[in-house]
Design brief:
The complex is a heterodimer. By secondary structure, chain A is mainly β. Chain A is built from no helices and 11 strands. Classes of the chains: A mainly beta, B mainly beta.
Chain lengths: 110, 114
Amino acid sequence: RKEVEQDPGPFNVPEGATVAFNCTYSNSASQSFFWYRQDCRKEPKLLMSVYSSGNEDGRFTAQLNRASQYISLLIRDSKLSDSATYLCVVSYNAGNMLTFGGGTRLMVKP
Amino acid sequence: DAGVIQSPRHEVTEMGQEVTLRCKPISGHDYLFWYRQTMMRGLELLIYFNNNVPIDDSGMPEDRFSAKMPNASFSTLKIQPSEPRDSAVYFCATRARGRDSPLHFGNGTRLTVT
């Protein structure tokens, strides 16, 4: 079993739709969680950190469920520019061991 | 801040040649990571440094790969001799001290070994 698992997709959604991704992790000692966005042929860029109480940044909401060991990302009112691959990242050992999921590809259509 | 700077952006070389990838971290970031990304295997950690010292190189594929960080502002990843299966995008990423500090990636080096 992979340490961090994501549904690879692709998720094909129309503009304006709400879409959610989940990411499960196996290491219960995981301490920090992040969502990154990667555009085709570009580097991953931090989208948002994920806090225990959940957090929101505009149209994006991240949640953490430690009991079930998963994090989620919700995107409301999808834009064409949201089309990308979304990577979840889980870290432990004071942030030195970071494990990336395989990514979920999102395609927003007009 | 200019961010993490990698060079070259693209490298095409023949099998057997030596390849050197370069990285300049964000000033003040104590940690530097080298990753490799392929379609088949996703992002793989090769090695990371803390304060210029290699901490974990268990992800380095084999002896053909080596990495150095001679000072806080420069790191190299060397492949000698290169093989076609080394073709991938190589990312350097750095982060500040602190458990919740995120990684910041460079633009990557796209390596093609023919």
